[in-house]
Amino acid sequence: MKAVCFGPQCALEKQTVPLSRKTRAVSRAYCPKYCNCIRAGSVVSCRGGGLLEIPSQEGALKSADKLYLQDNKITEIRKGVFSRMRTLNYLWLNGNRIKTIENGAFEGLIQVFDFYLRDNLIERIPASTFIGADVPLTKRIYLQNNNLKSIESGAFHNMKELKTIDLSNNRITHISQDAFKGLTNLQELYLYKNLLTSACWVTGNAKSFQSLEWFGIQSNRLKTLPTNLLGSLPSDINLNLEPNPLICDRVLKLIYDALMARVNKRYMEYDLSSWSCENPQNPSHMIKVADLSDDKLEALELAMEDATQPTKLQYSQASPRVGHSQSPLVMICTCTGVFGLLRWSIAS
């Protein structure tokens, strides 16, 4: 007859059963090679494991919540590679060598909140990238530090809850007029350090930008801005345009004045102190009327810069510190730096 065990030692024996050799072997087979599985397999970390491709969808990967694949040598994301990872919420693929993403590559990812794809070699995000994936819950996509050259129409199709898109530090020269169509919950869009020469696409995506709070487009190659740029963006948006080789034109002056008004009336965080523009086409259009007849002018700042198209100003009541009151003083306007900072030099 087999003895019956009573007492606390029996509970201890039962607890040691899962630690048998057989169980440990099953556990190792359950976790992909070169990976570590914790929290009963809900977290799978293959970080820095030297992987050349995404592991097969077996064992823990079928029920994982978080999958860390960063800092490997993965070069492509093939179609269907995630098709059975239906419980995945967070996917890290940053720091690989990914260049190609096949159509339907993210098929099966029905509840991913965050995609981390930064620091790769990705060249395109075509409209078919997320086709086959039900991604209405996705909140954030990080694509900075890649080789993207354009953002095509429908690139983020069906991502209705998307709040953050980071496309900074790529080589983007073109953005489709409806590249962000349907993203009505978008709050942050970062496009700094690209090669954009136009911002006309902003107006085409205006309906998707009504919730936008942060818009970074600094360090591009923008020379002109669309007239209705601010009209296409929320009134309380934090807009960063500096530095860009902007041309001093009427539109830029209007945008600058509008932003200054927001700074004065609200507690906006625009830093306009470094704003400047290049190659003024006609500085005279910046000023409609400059009447100094009633001013008590005591001193003038002399400027040595040459104006390409100088504007003359006649001051009819010179002060003793400037010249003789009997004769008018003619000065040349030289526009330098930010709008409104005008320097005057005495004409010969």
What share of the residues lie within helices? 10-25%
CATH superfamily of the largest domain: Ribonuclease Inhibitor
CATH architecture of the largest domain: Alpha-Beta Horseshoe
Our count of domains comes out at 2
Structural class: alpha/beta
Distance between the termini: 123 Å
Pfam family, one: LRR_8
Protein name: Variable lymphocyte receptor
Organism: Plakobranchus ocellatus
InterPro entries: Leu-rich_rpt, Leu-rich_rpt_typical-subtyp, LRR_dom_sf, LRR_TM_domain-containing
List keywords for this structure.
single chain; Leucine-rich repeat, LRR (right-handed beta-alpha superhelix); 2 domains; 10-stranded mixed beta sheet; 3-stranded antiparallel beta sheet; 4 helices; 16% strand; elongated; disordered C terminus; leucine-rich repeat; Leu-rich_rpt_typical-subtyp
Describe the secondary structure blueprint for this structure.
Blueprint (H helix, E strand, L loop, with lengths): L7 H9 L4 H10 L5 E3 L4 E3 L20 E3 L7 E2 L12 E3 L7 E2 L12 E3 L23 E3 L7 E2 L12 E3 L7 E2 L12 E3 L10 H4 L9 E3 L21 E3 L9 H16 L45 E5 L13 E7 L6 E5 L2
Parallel strand pairs: 2-3, 3-5, 4-6, 5-7, 7-8, 8-10, 9-11, 10-12, 12-13, 13-14
Antiparallel strand pairs: 1-2, 15-16, 16-17
Summarize the structure.
This protein is an alpha/beta fold. The chain is built from four helices and 17 strands.
